[in-house]
Amino acid sequence: MTNEIRDDLKYTESHEWLKLKDKKAIIGLTDHAQTELTDIVFVELPEVGKEIKKGDELCVVESVKSVSEIFAPVSGKIINVNKKLDDSPETINESPYDDGWLVEIEIKDTKELDDLLSGDAYKKTI
Amino acid sequence: MVLRSPLHNTHKELGASFTEFAGFEMPLQFSSIKKEHLTVRKSVGIFDVSHMSNIWITGKDAEKLISLTTLEDASRISDEKSQYTAMLKEDGTVIDDTIFMRLGEKFMIIPNAGMSDIVTDWLNKKAEEHNICATAENVSKDYVILAIQGPKSRDTLQKLTDTDLKNVKFFGCQYVDLAGINCIISHTGYTGELGFELQITPPEKAEYVFKKILDAGKEFDIKPIGLGARDTLRLEKCFILAGNEFEDGRTPLEALLSWTIYWDHEFIGKKSLLKQREQGDYERLTYLECMEKGIPRHGCIVQKNGKRVGKITSGTLSPCLNKGIAIAYVSPDNREIDSILDIIIRDKTVKAKVVKPPFVKKDWILTQ
User: Fold this and answer.
1) Do B319 and A86 touch (CB under 8 A)?
2) Among A54, A98, B201, B285, whose CB has the most other CB atoms within 10 angstroms?
């Protein structure tokens, strides 16, 4: 089982990572999450332009056996989605922190970022 | 209480992740459902299916008891043959589907997981009610069941026995000495591939046999397979899973099991089936292949022109076809081959075509 955690990212207890730059965040699933889910075979992504609240359903990730809802770790507007996942959802398994990212969000309220975990803090939760 | 297979620790050592199924904690997967699935289609895999039940039926009227309580006239099944059948209530709905084996004077039946007490009690009750001299004994805890499935299954097992396994014909069953252990072998399975199932007793001997088979299959890259791939493998071949396809009380006519009904004998539920057959107006199992992206799941509604026409009992992504596939009960007028239906997946509509079973044909491997 792999459990890579990168120090330059922020995390949630529900196994998302966020790469923060200015007021934008790229969001994906952690290595731990993709290992647990295994064999991701379908990803339902949100529409670009959609406004989303923290805790809302961001997307749905399906493995052969299970359906998992991914909830938005911060509020904001979807400005980009990883179209590659439509045809190659397994990219999340192969490259969870790089090619397998899910969406990019324009952050509405940077205060929400205070709830996010550092790599070390996330490590303790898994 | 959750039950475990006697091989639980062996599975742990092999890296299994576990799932609960019908009261048993069994391996869900060892490596990846997709990889395990393709291993069985292309080479060989070994499954521990000890969650399934074992019942011995003995007594001078054992044959009569099976004939009365199943769709089959057991007198037609000769020694060392097995038969797939189903057991019905008086109202024609299925209690369980099962395989029975005739082994000399005795019969062994293999009901589904969690059904051992229900089926044993039912058989003994019916024997008493009908003055049949036969007894059902639940011996599930005394047996480990292994399934060795895939095009290389026979080559793997042949290394461990002097019995020529080519002589164990489809649905044949017999005692065999395998790796020095006497067990029951049958040419049966739940994957649609060449395959065998072993009944091993006492359970303490199973780990040795399991490891011997893994060794023998090394040259074919044998893998241990979990319940995840067991489900996708059976679904691609349109085999029924009792807990899903018989949910809410379904008859063998609805479940498209009429090929297993031997009408020329008396059995419990027959009257109800005759009545249903005459009426004709009942939902039937229907096989749906998605034409768009999306994975149908158990419970999804099937529509035509916005009107509900059925409900999915089993669905998955087919690892061989890389498409969503599903089994649904659909009303009789809406299930013609090639007709297009809508599956509702999380409020979205996914178009699916009614296809002939199985989803994955016998020669699939040749197309790879």
Assistant:
1) no
2) B285
